[in-house]
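User: I'm writing a tutorial on reading structure tokens. Could you give me a worked example: one chain, its sequence, then its tokens, then a sentence or two explaining what the tokens reveal?
Assistant: Sure. Here is the example chain.
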Amino acid sequence: MTPRRSRNGIPSSALLIAANILIPAAILIFATGFFPYKPLLPGLANYESVTGYGDPPPAPFDKLIFMVIDALRSDFVYTAASGFEYTQSLVRDGAALPFTAHATSPTVTMPRLKAITTGSIPSFLDVVLNLDEGDESSSLASQDTWLAQMRAKQTGKLIMYGDDTWLKLFPGTFDRADGTTSFFVSDFTEVDNNVTRHISEELKSNDWNTMVLHYLGLDHIGHKGGPRSPHMIVKQREMDNIVQQIYSAIETEEHLRSTLFVVCGDHGMNDAGNHGASSAGETSAALVFMSPKLRDLRKNLSSPVPEDESFQYYSTVEQSDLAPTLAALLGFPVPKNNLGALIPDFLPFWSNEKDQVQLLMRNARQILDIVVATFGQQILEPNSNVEAVKDSNADYLELARGWQALADRYSKTVDDGNYSQLIPSITQWLHKAQGLISGMASNYDMSRLFLGQATAVAAVVAAFTAVYYSINDKAVAFVPLGGIILLYGIMMFASSYVEEEHHFWYWAATAWFSYLGLSVFKRGNTSATLSIVMLLAIRIVRSWNQTGQKFAGEPDMVKIYLHPNPVLLWCLAGATYFWVHQNLIFGLSALPIWFRFTVATGLVLAAFTFKVAFTLEDAPELVTDFARQLLLLTFTQTADLVSRARAVFIGVGLGMGGVVAFMLARQRISWVQSGTSTILTLLTLLLITQSRATNIPLFLLLNLQFRILLSQIESLTPLEVAISTLLLQHASFFAFGGSNAVSSVDLSSAYNGIGTYDPFTVGILTFTGNWAGSIWWAVAGVILLQSQRGHGREPGLWKGHVAVLTLFVAGSVAAVMAACTALRTHLFIWTVFSPKYLYCVAWSLGQHLLVNVGIGGLVYGLGVWERQRK
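And here are its predicted structure tokens:
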């Protein structure tokens, strides 16, 4: 069929192609303006650059052992339910000083390590770089950090064992190192044993001044089973034993007597065991300083302490405060880009108040240098363009005036010696400066932001024109689609609606299928029961997993029925696998009975036993005795998880290859259903493998919805099928537990079938696991279209279908960009709107271009080829 042409003579197909090219172009242009690297002060700080304070006071410590326990939430150490009993005894004894360290969003490892080592506020782009272990663009090798300062002291070597993120951030910094990948979340033990095996030997060595240890097992347990996993308390006790081993060596080994031992988390975790967003659990990390010398401070605190829902135990400090505090305690200048404030609890280490004031003034002067570098020297000159500065940056002008007042007071204090009154004023100025500069807007490239938005608007215009000239429905038929796009766009400008986006899709799907039921009834179809069943299925699906931010921990189907009743879980999961098994047998019905039964049974059994074995490692409390016995009965009982997953993937791949080969050869592979339906069945098995065990029964509900739509296909228009597909893709994403928070990204299935880290493979597996429901509906929607073609619809169905989906994607991209630009100074820009932009990228490039257009186009083409044979 010749493509319909628009009034200006441009084929609608060309407009559709242009729109799908403009979408990724807009995303790329906007991202380069929205996520720039912030300028940094070059070089290393030195004492000589800041004069007028005298010689720096002597440091109480000369060595540092810095132990990071990934995702060490504050309550994991400080409450009665903690496994850190020895650490708590040190707190009571006064040999340990505990804090809650506030980790600003994004709460993922790389940006948090940047904050800890530099004292600065990392770019939100680091949340993306954190997922790519091969990236070296985020290196801190040339920046001023406490690691660089300890190296510059030349009093010993730097050594590191654990998360290889340190090696990526600090290439060439460590003299001895053994890195382990941080993303293989199925490993609870080896990843930590690889760190511990070095400790005993290193504690006896006297050739180092800094030892960094980064343990990953506790974080992996959180990702797999949550903070209440039965593995969690065991891991906490293991970490506490390491603390005891190190502290005992500090007490007994002469060369370690002046060693400062710091134990901290890079971030916390939420109730689901994930992190990346800004909930109280994710931003509250434990921070403990340990040394026999701390007893001199006489701070014998109570431990354990009662549970606190806010996770704020003892004093709360910023993670960036670590940099200036370590500088004072270990005797080196504060790193140049630091925004942290020296923790005042350690000031009593210096009995002379003059030394205390000097440390605070050096810290303040260092932060002042950042203000001057940002706004120019004029901010310190009262008579130079004061009004211009005041109009645009009144807070910073006031900060500069406050510094000058402090400097004047310091000069007078040097004469009269009354230093004690100056300490509170400097501390107050430090915290004010910290708050102002930390919240300073990023250096956005506004020209790129506007160009990106203009490109997105152009994509909207091209997609809208393609829809108009691809679908022959009346204008009123487009009202629901227009309403969805308009309401969604408006919703992007409100942080609460972004956080709770799932409600929009649940209610939109409910309203749409209610309307559709009435429309079908009016067209003469009397099966109102099917509409009721459809709405009931939607209600159950939306109740399966609570998501979002406000009600994420509230009861849902999984928490109420499946977690307490593993038997029910595996009955439903078994029914799902049985349904797949039967569909496979029907899908291969043109083959000999013995062959199709063997293939279907072997493949489904391999997938089922993998899921049982996986859950046994992931959440053993969910595995019934019967399921455990099933593992013992199979001939693969000694196989590991990697081999089991590979068997499933290879089986599904061979199955799809065989089906496609039969379709291309114009031969029947089934007398019962189309080849594309068999492909959907095999895809279902793959998606089940990548889904959590508690989400497996959802595929039965998705199939029920699909069968209802398929039964009414003669009464539906192509536009209605496209809108239905759009709504169900998004609703199912949230029903499976997704949200717009980075912390909801499920990494539990990201390593199925692979033994080492590969960013491309892990990325594909992660996307497949998190968008499983959406991917399923993308292919199911194609089969609905093929059924319409079989009922006499016009040949241009696919173009119209893609045009509708493209129009929504282009509109959503434009709306999210506009919201991020308009609200770039909003309090929640980095905790709500920036993560939403990243999800928008995943939806646009991953789900739309790769799945809907790419995979969907291949499946639709195969279906057309198959029908031409008949």
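What the tokens reveal: The beta strands are 63-69, 96-102, 157-163, 176-180, 208-215, 259-264, 284-290, 315-318. The chain has a mean pLDDT of 86.
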